[in-house]
Amino acid sequence: MEKKLAEYKCDTNEATCLKLVRFPEDVEDDGTTFHPEYSHQLFGDDEVAFGYKGLQIQLFYTAGNLSTLFKVKYSSKVTDTFDCVEADDVEGKIREIIPAGFTSNTDDFISLLEKEANFKPFGTMLHSYTVHNEEAEQLTYQIHKADISCPGFQEYHERLQTFLMWFIETASFLDIDDDRWDFFLVFEKYNKDGETLYATVGYMTVYNYYVYPDKTRPRVSQMLILPPFQGEGHGAQLLEAVHRFYCSLPKVQDITAEDPSENYVKLRDYVLTKLCQNLPSFDADKLHLGFSADMIREAQEKLKINKKHARRVYEILRLRATDMSDEEKARAYRLEVKKRLFGPYRKNQRELAKMRKCLRPEELVSHMGQLDTQTQHEELEKSYQLALEDYRRVIERLASQA
Ligand SMILES: CC(C)(COP(=O)(O)OP(=O)(O)OC[C@H]1O[C@@H](n2cnc3c(N)ncnc32)[C@H](O)[C@@H]1OP(=O)(O)O)[C@@H](O)C(=O)NCCC(=O)NCCS
């Protein structure tokens, strides 16, 4: 019986089929399907749905307006009567995250594609850029700034944010009924039967925090480039456009991010280094003199970059300007980075020392101190190597864009 029931378990990342549809033929084309990276928020940590064989959850969206087709298909399902077990309510779980107004009829969905010609990007255009794809076509993209006052935007955003659940591990939906939210959207212009249409590529949400007495601190909340468009430079274009937009506003103190992911930090390192590399205080001859007050001031005043981020930029640019085959220079560089990395370890050590005072001797492992120092040394070296790896990646990317 157990073996039989095991056949009715499905991996929900595989079973969920997402699609951004431009042309009717995309609906049947498996090549345009993509799958979630995460489905644990809906289906639990195992990312498994029970009760179905051959489960397929179709969530297809029209490319621009994101009108939605939602269907659940399977080849067989357990039944209360014969198997005495109940199947998971897959449909109910998906309905919790997708807004009303979707269709479950493929023909209706295909007819919605005709309305895509009426879909126009929301808000005002901040930036436009072109990219050459593999077929040597020139594609044009636009970055727009929108807010909740844009007609139809609230409903569109509800459809757009459903993607967060599948691609951000700790995603949560926004209640955007607050005019402190800014939205930045990326669209691709494409041609269909001689008409120009717009496809949704990705977006970023930013909350404008108030800073006493008269400043704001925009904080990036979520950023998503839809998977078919990832790794093509759109994330960098979007982040740079957002930075440039806020730099132009005198009331902005600096730009921060909420709980940034590793990927986001990588992207930010690249974008901020690209922006800072031409500032006089970051000139190659000044980098070897250390992280200076001038760097902090210039990055903050001209680019609204805070001290912590400016420090990373300095380390990246200094690495680029350092001949690492020269032992002395490499050592000076290593010490400089480790000095910063050591900050949290020193704090740890202070806390440990305090703890020792409170504990009875028998509670202390005799060689705990020694072990900690060694572990900390190893951790520090590991952090340094990881930072170097990330920094080298940024330097390579800057060189490839030069
Ligand atoms: C993180 C994220 C926003 C990055 O967006 P993106 O559009 O893929 O970013 P980019 O294309 O600018 O850069 C990504 C990589 O593609 C590479 N790349 C960019 N253009 C390229 C091109 N034309 N050819 C080859 N590689 C390219 C970049 O060098 C970079 O590689 P690296 O990370 O090894 O340095 C996106 O992957 C995403 O939405 N992920 C899921 C959600 C998430 O993690 N959000 C962030 C936290 S909320």
Automatic annotation (TrEMBL):
InterPro entries to which the protein is assigned, alphabetical: Acyl_CoA_acyltransferase, HAT1_C, Hat1_N, Hat1_N_sf, Hist_AcTrfase_B-typ_cat-su, Hist_AcTrfase_HAT1_C
Gene3D superfamilies: 1.10.10.390, 3.40.630.30, Histone acetyl transferase 1 (HAT1), N-terminal domain
Site (Interaction with histone H4 N-terminus): W181
Function of the molecule: Histone acetyltransferase that plays a role in different biological processes including cell cycle progression, glucose metabolism, histone production or DNA damage repair. Coordinates histone production and acetylation via H4 promoter binding. Acetylates histone H4 at 'Lys-5' (H4K5ac) and 'Lys-12' (H4K12ac) and, to a lesser extent, histone H2A at 'Lys-5' (H2AK5ac). Drives H4 production by chromatin binding to support chromatin replication and acetylation. Since transcription of H4 genes is tightly coupled to S-phase, plays an important role in S-phase entry and progression.
Reactions this protein catalyses: L-lysyl-[protein] + acetyl-CoA = N(6)-acetyl-L-lysyl-[protein] + CoA + H(+)
Keywords, sorted A to Z: Acetylation, Acyltransferase, Mitochondrion, Nucleus, Phosphoprotein, Transferase
Record-linked PANTHER family: HISTONE ACETYLTRANSFERASE TYPE B CATALYTIC SUBUNIT
Protein name per its UniProtKB record: Histone acetyltransferase type B catalytic subunit
Organism of derivation: Poecilia formosa (Amazon molly)
GO molecular function: histone acetyltransferase activity; histone binding
